[in-house]
Task: inverse folding
């Protein structure tokens, strides 16, 4: 069995539930650049993951604080999926990945770091994007600053 080590996420794990739901808090805020919100729809939005598994790791979520896909309305599901498709195109054009991991973790035992607010992860992947650093040095290399990528993704979105 392979093991995915992600020690850089401990900061997130230790703080996420202490301050309440970060998705609700950032959605209520209008400081989109500070919070790395890339896109707002009527029912859902897209935010950059501040503790990414890889460069360009995004979260797509409805505004409503519901923990399960089956609790979402049809409109919330539809808009969430439309935003996912839109952001996949933006990431393809901007960072040119070889593929994506797209996933939903519902419940703590399923790997959800944020239990209670449904969201979808989209993580760009490149051939050879894993190396010895996480295994030998407990270090994950993310090749671009979040602010720089945020600006790049917004530029791609506005050019469409």
Result:
């Amino acid at each position: 069995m392979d093991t995915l080590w992600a020690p850089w996420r401990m900061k997130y794990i230790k703080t996420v539930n202490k301050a309440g739901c970060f998705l609700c808090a950032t959605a209520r805020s209008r400081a989109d650049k500070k919070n790395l919100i890339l896109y707002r729809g009527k029912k859902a939005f897209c935010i950059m993951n501040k503790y990414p598994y890889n460069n360009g790791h995004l979260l797509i979520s409805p505004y409503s604080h519901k923990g399960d896909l089956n609790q979402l309305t049809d409109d919330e599901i539809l808009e969430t999926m439309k935003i996912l498709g839109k952001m996949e195109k933006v990431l393809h054009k901007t960072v040119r990945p070889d593929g994506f991991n797209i996933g939903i973790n519902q419940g703590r035992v399923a790997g959800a770091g944020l239990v209670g607010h449904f969201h979808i992860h989209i993580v760009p992947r490149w051939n050879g994007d894993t190396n010895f650093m996480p295994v030998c040095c407990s270090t994950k290399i993310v090749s671009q600053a979040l602010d720089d990528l945020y600006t790049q993704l917004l530029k791609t979105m506005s050019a469409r």
In short: The chain has six helices and five strands.
